[in-house]
Amino acid sequence: MTALTIVLTGASGGIGSAVAKMMSAAGHRLILVGRNPQPLNDLRDMLDGSARHTTVVADLLQAADRKRLVTQCKQDCSKVDVLINNAGVSHFGLLENISDQAMADMLNTNVLAPVLIVRDLLPLLSRSSNATIINIGSTFGSIGYPGFSGYSASKFALRGFTEALRRELAEQLITVHYLAPRAVDTPMNSASVKALNAELGNAMDPPEIVAAACHALLKARDGRNRYLGWPERFFVRINALIPALVDVTLRKQLRTIQKYSRPEA
Ligand SMILES: NC(=O)c1ccc[n+]([C@@H]2O[C@H](COP(=O)([O-])OP(=O)(O)OC[C@H]3O[C@@H](n4cnc5c(N)ncnc54)[C@H](OP(=O)(O)O)[C@@H]3O)[C@@H](O)[C@H]2O)c1
Fold it and tell me: Name one Pfam family in it (predicted).
């Protein structure tokens, strides 16, 4: 595969770092985006061919920062081949305990920011004959999960945006993917979420699984959604066809979810 220029948001996080390592090892050039310079610089320094990668310190909730990201991309490269919208936040808890700020954080970071970044990078993506957008979703973007109502809402919205955009760009050479991991072992998950998953027997994948799926999408470029993990992939189907069955399963988990979602837990 030819070397691609990849804009990766949330590069310094658990999944982002694994994606950056896999893509750099494959010879691609990365534009690494995050809010904190130190972890971004540390990451760049450890990547294969570190000199060919750049970092952009940007809070994607700030219009001026998003503008600076686009300007930097224009300055550094004639085109962007791949945009991976990976930056995201999650606040676990019953809705009654989620603050205005936490809810706004999830909806703005997980939906509004990627939508606006796609819009603003479309001109640079249009110049590539391999243009690919990968929106990192979640199993909870197809299965509304108790304790994650705001997060689920954000990932359902991201999935809807991906579907609409894919159809809107059907006449162009831009492939749009939605990649939905199940739980992944990264700093995003608090100790309570990890304990909840352990008690419920929910598997947590290493971030390298998601990185490998991203890498595979660059070759497939088939514009199909991907759901990682079994039985989660199966439950996504069941939830779409017979949601009442999933209601019964999640009703049985509710007391456990409530226990771990207490603010002091
Ligand atoms: N971990 C899971 O269980 C799981 C499961 C399914 C899907 N996902 C999805 O996978 C993606 C990556 O998650 P992760 O587990 O790798 O989380 P993580 O380790 O917490 O990393 C999140 C990344 O997003 C960046 N970020 C957050 N807010 C930002 C903002 N306003 N502007 C710029 N960057 C921002 C963070 O960098 P700074 O803080 O330095 O800015 C960090 O690099 C997310 O979209 C998440 O929803 C995760």
Answer: adh_short
- 242 CA distance to ligand 1 centroid (A)? 31
CA angle 173, 177, 181 (to 5 degrees): 165
What is the predicted pLDDT for the residue at 108?
Answer: 98
**What are the tens digits of pLDDT across the range 24-46?**
999 999 999 999 999 999 999 99
CATH (domain of 60):
3.40.50.720
Which structure tokens are listed for 222? 């088939």
Q: Which domain holds residue 11?
A: 5-261
Query: Residue 82 Cα, ligand 1 centroid: separation in angstroms?
Result: 18
User: Which residues' Cβ are closer than 6 Å to ligand 1?
Assistant: 9-16, 34-36, 39, 59-61, 86-90, 109, 136, 138, 181, 183-184, 186-189
Residue among 119, 114, 105, 213 at smallest CA distance from 158: 114
149-153, 208-212, 231-235, 259-263: least confidently modelled range: 259-263
CA gap 37, 176 in Å, rounded: 29
Closest-lying ligand 1 atom to the alpha carbon of residue 181: 6
Which residue, by CA, sits nearest to atom 34 of ligand 1?
A: 34
